[in-house]
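Design a sequence for this backbone.
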């Protein structure tokens, strides 16, 4: 991506046409009649399964876009859609503006004890950029916030930053509270117009899990499984902290800090020690090797003059299977803050389609550190996992055999199964029989024992984080979009948040009133009554991954066979078959929770 003023202007000019065009398709009576005709039993018989799925998905999309509504209802529906898009935009802007405004200037270096050098440099540079010499600027950027809470020894500073971050856009003229109420009301009204009781019911129309009850049940069961382990871990953490002279209660702004100290004491492996083993070139070599040994594909780079790219750092690769070119991808690896947004993402440039005859072309974007002088780009463990994760998304597009673009690759896949293939790839990063990590200077291998430590490190206090970051917030999301009466004058969304928090006493985000005002996923993004999808996808991924563990990672022949089956089912069928059917084709049975529970150390 190369963001520029010209591009922004062009986008601004064309965006309304795109919205209008999409709306026109989704609300076209003629198209709806045509699709309804295709949905007749006698016609369906002559269609393939992917074609039938494409018909069903399109009909669902059209109904959810208000097709079939008449007169006043239709006018009101379109009015609600327009209002929602403005409110969601406002929500995000308030959040962004608040984060931009907020910073703490630190003059006294001793207050930053514990903060890693690389972060100090970044904060000093930010301070200079706003004219503050010999100072450090602490901001709410995730790249600062997360490591800062983990490492800064100054407890008061941690508390200040935690409270600011978790209550972004909850006060003054950037307050999102009223916007949340209005969004909830409009979404309820919209759901009723569509013939559903709540927005959670609407959300379920395009999910694998099937019903609101099934989501609630999932949250309750996992919460009960997590709870004793999380409480045990907290007691252990408190004992550990008290041995280091910290006698106070562990508050939310202490959790990450003491967890990190505890993890260091238990495992003694730091990110900085690992980086030299994860040079970007080696990460790509290992990733492509995994793709070859599991899915039988060969990946070859195409040099620049042959292919046009938007930045000299962008690389282009062709993917071959049994000698045939089946797909290509751009790999935009490095961070370029001035023209490229943060994070990592994948999108298809070209979908596989029998209409165009095209092979899929995918764009994979990451924000890895740039090489400095003679030192190559060295990744953290988490960045390596991100690389494997995004490649998993790309694989689903690249290896699809479905030629109906509506359901090829990730298209048409139910939202809660979208992260299946991507999360499936992550655990391979620490499998010594699958990947070999060598030091970029000495060529020395990362010891198998360290790989084992890395696997265990991932489990460290993982149930506490699962409880806090996924289950609790997932439960709040469902409660607000299903049980809460948005038109009530007696209870507020904050009351709902507090009520759910009573079921999760180990969590206590509640200490910071106003958390909802920055919870953009469920109010201004695509996670409405869908936050549980992170957990649901992970259950599928880990269950599938366990199939490989069962045959033994060093059993090359079995692993290759399983890999082929994974490629022929999960990666090939994409949206052309219901995700649970796809899963069953791979695993030979329905998904189970065991692998998930084991991963989080919850199987007794
Ligand atoms: Zn993903």
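Sequence:
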């Amino acid at each position: 991506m190369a963001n520029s003023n010209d591009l922004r202007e062009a986008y601004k000019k064309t965006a309304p046409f795109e919205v209008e065009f999409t709306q026109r398709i989704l609300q076209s009576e003629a198209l709806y009649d045509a699709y309804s005709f295709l949905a007749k039993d006698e016609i369906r018989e002559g269609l393939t399964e992917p074609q039938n799925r494409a018909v069903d998905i399109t009909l669902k999309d059209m109904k959810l876009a208000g097709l079939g509504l008449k007169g006043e209802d239709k006018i009101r529906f379109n009015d609600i859609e327009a209002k929602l898009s403005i409110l969601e935009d406002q929500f995000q802007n308030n959040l962004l503006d608040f984060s931009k405004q907020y910073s703490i200037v630190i003059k006294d270096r001793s207050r930053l004890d514990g903060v890693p050098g690389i972060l100090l440099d970044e904060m000093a540079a930010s301070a200079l950029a706003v004219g503050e010499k010999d100072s450090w600027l602490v901001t709410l950027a995730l790249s600062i916030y997360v490591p800062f809470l983990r490492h800064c020894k100054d407890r008061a500073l941690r508390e200040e930053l935690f409270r600011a971050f978790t209550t972004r856009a909850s006060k003054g003229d950037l307050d999102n509270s009223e916007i949340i109420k209005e969004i909830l009301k409009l979404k309820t009204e919209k759901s009723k117009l569509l013939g559903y009781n709540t927005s959670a019911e609407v959300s379920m129309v395009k999910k694998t899990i099937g019903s609101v009850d099934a989501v609630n049940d999932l949250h309750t069961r996992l919460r009960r499984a997590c709870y004793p382990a999380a409480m045990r871990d907290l007691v252990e953490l408190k004992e550990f902290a008290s041995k280091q002279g910290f006698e106070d209660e562990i508050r939310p702004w202490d959790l990450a800090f003491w967890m990190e100290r505890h993890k260091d004491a238990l495992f003694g492996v730091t990110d900085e020690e690992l980086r030299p083993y994860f040079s970007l070139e080696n990460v790509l070599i290992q990733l492509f090797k995994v793709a070859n040994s599991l899915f039988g594909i060969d990946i070859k780079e195409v040099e620049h003059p042959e292919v046009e790219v938007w930045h000299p750092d962008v690389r282009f690769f062709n993917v071959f299977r049994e000698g045939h070119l089946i797909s290509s991808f751009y790999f935009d690896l490095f961070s370029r803050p001035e023209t490229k947004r943060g994070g990592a993402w994948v999108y298809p440039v070209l979908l596989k389609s029998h209409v165009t005859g095209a092979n899929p072309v995918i764009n994979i974007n990451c924000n890895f550190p740039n090489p400095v002088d003679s030192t190559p780009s060295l990744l953290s463990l988490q960045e390596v996992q991100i690389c494997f994760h995004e490649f998993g998304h790309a694989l689903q597009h690249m290896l699809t055999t479905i030629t109906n673009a509506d359901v090829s690759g990730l298209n048409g896949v139910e939202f809660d199964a979208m992260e299946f293939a991507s999360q499936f790839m992550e655990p391979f990063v620490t499998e010594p029989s699958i990947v070999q990590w060598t030091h970029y200077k000495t060529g020395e291998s990362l010891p198998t024992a360290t790989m084992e430590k890395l696997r265990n490190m991932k489990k460290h206090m993982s149930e506490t984080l699962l409880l806090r970051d996924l289950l609790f917030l997932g439960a709040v999301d469902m409660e607000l979009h299903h049980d809460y009466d948005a038109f009530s004058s007696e209870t507020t969304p904050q009351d709902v948040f507090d009520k759910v928090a009573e079921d999760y006493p180990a969590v206590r985000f509640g200490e910071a009133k106003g958390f909802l005002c920055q919870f953009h996923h469920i109010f201004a993004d695509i996670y409405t009554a869908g936050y549980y999808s992170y957990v649901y996808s992970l259950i599928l991924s880990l269950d599938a991954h366990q199939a490989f563990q069962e045959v033994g990672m060093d059993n090359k022949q079995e692993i290759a066979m399983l890999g082929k089956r994974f490629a022929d089912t999960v990666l090939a069928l994409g949206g052309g078959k219901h995700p649970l059917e796809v899963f069953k084709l791979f695993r030979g049975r329905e998904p189970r929770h065991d692998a998930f529970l084991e991963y989080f150390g919850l199987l007794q």
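The longest strand covers residues 324-334.
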